Amino acid sequence: MKKITWLLPMVVSTLFVNAQRKTDRKTLTNLQMHIAYLSSDKLEGRRTGAPGEKLAAEYISEQMQQIGLLPKGTAEFLQTFTVKEGLEPASTCNFELNHKQLTVGLHYLPLPFSAAKSAKGEVLPQANEPDNIWLINVTEVDTTKYKSRLELYRKETATAAQSGATAVIFYNGGESLELVNSWLVQSAAAAIPAIWVNKDISKILDDDNANSFLIQLHAELQPVKRTGINVIGYIDNKAEQTIIIGAHYDHLGFGEDNNGLTKGHVLYHGANDNASGIAAMLEIARQLKASKLRHNNYLFVAFSGNEQGLSGSKYLVANSPVDLATVNYMINLDMIGRLNPAHGLQIAGVGTSPSWAQLLTSVVKDTKVVYNASGTGPADHSSFYRKNIPVLFFCTDREDFHQPEDVAEKINYEGTLTVMRVVYDLIDKTDNLQKLAFSATPDSLTAVAK
Fold it and tell me: Most buried one in 183, 286, 287, 303, CB count within 10 A?
């Protein structure tokens, strides 16, 4: 009898280990299924507003429904938002400089008031003549006469048109491409095309040794309304607090927004960035739905618009389906599919609550971790931090970041499971705790390995 009593704990332990292995195998199978589909050619890179994004949103909402999550969007699981409404360069735009084709949206942009016209000519540096294209070096313009840089461009264009210019090209402006793109809203058209060029093209036009420039261009803008879709599911435990677990699912498509790191029309699969985060979020939702963790509600959000200035998460916090005052904390899973033991798991936001340090120490055991205190950064948790909500950002290696080679075959699935365990154990540890206190952090702090 004593022998049987002694063996019983071993039998129970063995059964538990076998059950855990079976659960892990199922989770790994699901992770592979999610990532393979979301990063497949069929979804065409999941660019916000494109057909592939809609296919991804449908897949994620179907998975949430199968898990048993409650829909928390404005139309079932979906929450639609406007990414951009205004103008964008038409496909007819063209700019050749010394017979070299420039790329609209990368090397140049028509300004919002640009006329839809063509122009060509042999242009002499520092010689703006009638019936030819004018080059205007913005550093030589008296900016004190204008209330803004956009007003400068508009009025200088009008002056050039009155003086007989067939088009005007502004160089050495110094603005970012993103800022100029944000100006593209409806505007009264000028009489001639007006083009802004980036710093690389500015260097060419500013070359004192250049004899002349052969320029041929066509500028044209068209109206656009680009929308994105957040996908939102909910576990309602009738609790006073809610934990938000999010990941973005949009990616770069074929590089139409010129935010990829490879030139030309290529498919960006986005397996690590961020099919991996979505896959993990769905499987954590599945585990929490089956768990006995009942002291928090759980809101699961698949964000779109991440690659467009975090527009999806910004829209959600402004139009939240739950009262943000009741949110305990937010966890963001972004690029968690390339865990490298030598480099470790990166966790940012540890300074956004005084509770994080001790909690993380208790759940991270056999994995190297690189901590960063800051609650800000170019990822969706920043939108929640700005609302005084404690956040954590989980990330692994950024190899193949914004490259076409970010494919499912390179995902470390066991490593993704390791990240999931850390997140789940953290949620488990906070189940019986009071709402976490928020603390502000500097915008940027040096990472520290542990």
Answer: 303
Determine the pLDDT at residue 7.
54
List the chain residues with pLDDT less than 50: 1-2, 11-12, 15-16, 445-450
CA dihedral 101, 105, 109, 115 (to 10 degrees): 90
In this prediction the pTM is 0.79
Q: Is 18 exposed, middle or buried (0-12, 13-18, 19+ CB in 10 A)?
A: exposed
Q: Count of CB atoms within 10 A of residue 410's CB? A: 14
Per-residue model confidence (pLDDT) at position 178:
85
User: How many Cα atoms occupy the beta-carbon half-sphere of 353 within 13 Å?
Assistant: 23
- The H or E element containing residue 170 is strand 167-171
Q: Tell me if 313 sits within 8 A of 303, measured CB to CB.
A: yes
Contact 152, 138 (CB under 8 A): yes
CA-to-CA distance for 367 and 347, rounded, in angstroms? 12
**DSSP state, 138?**
G
Cross-strand partners of 332: 246, 393
Contact in structure between 116 and 149 (CB atoms under 8 Å): no
d(Cα 259, Cα 106) in Å, to the nearest integer?
Answer: 9
Kindly report, residue by residue over 373-431, the tens digit of the pLDDT: 999 999 999 999 999 999 999 999 999 999 999 999 999 999 999 999 999 999 999 99
What end-to-end distance do the CA atoms of the chain give, in Å? 48
